[in-house]
Design goal:
Layout (H helix, E strand, L loop, with lengths): L1 H27 L4 H22 L7 H28 L2 H8 L2 H12 L7 H19 L1
Helix pairs in contact: 1-3, 1-4, 2-3
């Protein structure tokens, strides 16, 4: 099971790491941010369906589709549009560095909003180290 987790993390890292570069390349091909979001959404949907079919799992019911649509519009579409616009006007590397701050912001928010996600001294030290690294890379 541990190898699967690491493989998933590696795949996610490659996906996030190349998204800024691929977005910038799409802009050079005269695609607009909304076309890029549509293409990314279609690719994500195709992967989800491929994994579902490969695992021989049935498709979800109507309620799940409605919840998924709501989550997709609020938690996926808007951030991806903003990311695409950011890459259009800033370097892909800089936007990628700023995106690495997401875990820090998530950990701080979870500390205050979720009782099981307390930010102990070890996590605080690790997140501070990560934030310092991002700050150093961004400053250079």
């Amino acid at each position: 099971m541990r190898a699967r987790i690491w493989a998933a993390m590696l795949a996610a890292s490659i996906g996030w790491g190349t998204s800024g570069i691929a977005t910038r390349a799409a802009f050079h091909q005269d695609l607009g941010p909304f076309a890029i979001v549509a293409m990314r959404s279609l690719m994500a949907a195709a992967l989800v369906f491929a994994f579902r079919l490969a695992g021989r799992r049935p498709l979800p019911g109507r309620t799940t589709w409605l919840h998924g649509a709501l989550i997709g519009l609020t938690n996926y579409t808007a951030p991806i549009i903003l990311f695409s616009l950011a890459v259009r006007y800033a370097s892909a590397g800089f936007v990628g560095l700023l995106a690495t701050m997401t875990p820090l912001i998530t950990a701080i928010g979870a500390h205050f909003l979720l009782p099981d996600e307390r930010l102990g001294w070890r996590r605080a030290c690790g997140l501070s180290l990560a934030a310092g690294g991002v700050t150093l890379l961004t400053a250079t």
